[in-house]
Every structure is written in structure tokens, then in C-alpha cells.
Amino acid sequence: MSENTGCNTGTSTIAVLVIPRNSFLYSCIVEVYCAAAVCFPFFNREAADWRGVSSEGKPTDVFINIDVMDIDEIAEERMEYSMQFYVNEYWKDTRLNISNKPYGTHFQIPKEILKSIWTPDIIFENSKGGWVYQLAVPNIIVKTHLYGYLHRFTRYNMKIACSMFLQNFPMDTQKCFLSIASLANDDSKMLLKWVDERSEEETLEKVHDLYLGNVHPLKYHVTNATTSKYKQEWPIGIFTTLQANFTFVRHLSSHIFNSYIPSGLVVMLSFLSFWLNVRSVPARVALGLTSLLTLSTQASQVRSHLPPINYLTAIDVWLFSCILQVFLSLVEFATVYSLYSRKLRNRRGASGKAWSDNGSRRLVGSEISDSRSDTRQGKRKTEKISTKEPMSADFEEELQPLDRASRIIFPLGFFVFSLVYWISYLKTSRTF
């Protein structure tokens, strides 16, 4: 008694051992039988022709879909991003004897056969480097598929170039893409298409052109993923290029806590110098210089994570404005202290002249002349005491009108700048 295995063997007759259908050995032998009936009889020398042309003389349609597993790094300093993904390729080769039925079992084609049949020669045009996964086994398989298709799926880990425009950094949105094209076969031999372009009768499974799994990049979130294609004309022919497009929006929260809030606090800390006494020179200078050095270090650290671009970014504008505010506070103190010193000299000069007019200095001179027994040290002490005048609190307040005005002008100016800054940059950005 024989069993019908449902394998397409053409005109050949193959004997099958009589084994109970429910046994494990039966299922194993049927699989080997079907694999031999489907894979090996279709191999011939004609299939080894490297031209991807169908028997009707039309170009071979190669349908592509991409399954993105992870986007683990988006590096601004190198203008690239890393992605792990599967590429699924579907094509028909009419020179091979594969069943065109919409059902059946998928069989893996042995590696020995793969070396002798035609396969698409796709390349990734904007790739900077990558590899096919080799963990445990090479992650590349070719199987027979429904409707007579061959199906090759390969897992890649790849670094892909992405030209980024960082003028709005860190409130920027980046658009990156992955380009797939044929290396040697132009459109007269092979046509690259997205899998959604298959005919309706051959659409058996819910496969999208571009699928994103649980993808959550560390510094971004993916807001949009689309596909497109275009044609390029070269001297050797016209080539179709498939393009997977990704839109990355940067997370702003980390920059708020690591850059914006600390720099804002440093600026407000420098404003405390306006409440210090004008004679507190070491305290006010140290406060201003420390704030200035802190902001300069922070600006250098931020720039170290960016490429050597020749334009200002949004965070450059912020940090430069913060540095300018602190610098102006130091200039304000220098101005106040200069006015203070000038008025102090004028006041002392006026006081000395007034004392000379009322005879105070003559009195001191008479006392020194009459007292022949006084020593030189006593004379110096008498002169010092006679010319000293205590500094009144009203005089110090009189010399600090600029400080009092700065206590309002500087914080108000920083608040207005911050308001304009955030409204301007967030108006066209969705980064939260």
C-alpha cells in the first residue's frame, strides 16, 4: 500500500515505503521525499545562468520587505546609525520546477544547490559597513515559497550613513534612509519592487514593505517609517532603487536635565553678585569667574559629541547667551567698582581740602613743632589719625545705583531671552 505525499514530481514515478502515516518515521521520510522531489529535480545547467531573465524574456520581479528588529545607536558625531534587520526577497525562476499552488510546505534549499542557481544581487548603497549574523549558524536561508516563489531571508547588522542637519539640536528631527539596489542587473533583467506591489491573487500573508518591531532607540523615538522607490540612469542601464525612510525625533528630556537646567542655575547664581557689597572684590570676582569657567566647560563637553559643523546649533545659542550674561555681570562689577574708586578719591580729596581750610592741619603742624620730644613714629601716628574719615553707609548706597538696577535688568533680560528661545525652537519641533 502506498501513500500519496502531494509532491510535484513531474512525469517521474517514485516509490514510497509503506509506513504507518501516524509514525514519526513516516513524517521524516515524507519530508526527505518531498525535498528531493521539489529541490533536486528542478536543478539543471540552465538554472545556473546568472541572468535574472524569465523564460518570456521579461525581467525577473524581485519583491523586497524589511523587518527592523532594533535601531541601537544613532551617532551624530559620525553621521550614522546602526540597525539590525531582516531582508526578505521573493522571486520566481521559471526555469525551476516549483509548484505554483497557493499551498504546500516550505522547503529549504541545500547550500550545494544555492551555489548553482540564480539569486538577486542586492546591495545597500549607503551602508558604511555591516555583516550577516553568524551566531550559531549563518542567518541566511533560501526556501521554496507559495505560488512558486523562492524566498531568501537574511539577517544583517549594519552601520548606515545618514546626513544630519543639526541646526535645531537638541530639538531636531532627523530623516534617514536605507537604499537597496542591484549591483549588476539593470531593469531589463531584474526589477526591484516592494512586496506590496505583488498581484492580489498572490497576496497570501499580511506582509508589509517595512515592519518595525519593538524598536526604541535610546536618544530618539521613531515617528514615521515609509517606503519609496526611484530610478537612476547610468551608462550601463537604468536601475531601480528601493528606499526605506525613517523619521527620528530626539528626546529632549535628557538635555534639559543635563544642560539647560544646570546652565540656567549657573547664570542665576552669578546674579547674586549684585547683592554683594561693592568692596567684596574677591567674592564677586570669584563668583563671576567660576560661573564663566563652568559654562565654558559645559559648552566644550556638548560640542565634543557633535561633528565639526560650521554653523551654530540651538544649544550653542543657549550656552553662548548664558556665557554672555555672566560676562556682562563681570563687566557690570568692574564698572561699579571703578565708579566707587573714583568717587572715593574725590571724596577724600574734598575732605582733605576742607580740613586744611579750617586749620586742622595747621594745628597738627603746630603741635608737632612745639613738641620737640615727640619721636618720628608719633608724628606719623598724629598725621594718620588727623586725616582719617569714617565711611558712612549712605555713601556706599550712593555709589551702587548700577547694582540696584542690575538686580532687575539682568534677571528680567534672562527671562525674556529664555521665553523667546523656547518659543522659537519648540514652535516647529515635537521633541517631548
TrEMBL record:
GO terms for molecular function: chloride channel activity; extracellular ligand-gated monoatomic ion channel activity; ligand-gated monoatomic anion channel activity; transmembrane signaling receptor activity. Residues 260-347 form the Neurotransmitter-gated ion-channel transmembrane domain. It is found in: Cell membrane; Membrane. The keyword Ribonucleoprotein does not apply. Residues 365-392 are annotated as: Disordered. Residues 51-251 form the Neurotransmitter-gated ion-channel ligand-binding domain. The keyword GTP-binding does not apply. It holds the Pfam family Neur_chan_memb. Belongs to the ligand-gated ion channel (TC 1.A.9) family. InterPro entries: GABAA/Glycine_rcpt (IPR006028), Neur_chan_lig-bd (IPR006202), Neur_chan_lig-bd_sf (IPR036734), Neur_channel (IPR006201), Neuro-gated_channel_TM_sf (IPR036719), Neuro_actylchol_rec (IPR038050), Neurotrans-gated_channel_TM (IPR006029), Neurotransmitter_ion_chnl_CS (IPR018000). The chain crosses the membrane at residues 260-278, 317-340, 408-426. This is Glycine receptor subunit alphaZ1. It is a multi-pass membrane protein. Keywords: Cell membrane, Ion channel, Ion transport, Membrane, Receptor, Signal, Transmembrane, Transmembrane helix, Transport. Gene3D superfamilies: Neurotransmitter-gated ion-channel ligand-binding domain, Neurotransmitter-gated ion-channel transmembrane domain. One of its GO terms (cellular component) is plasma membrane.
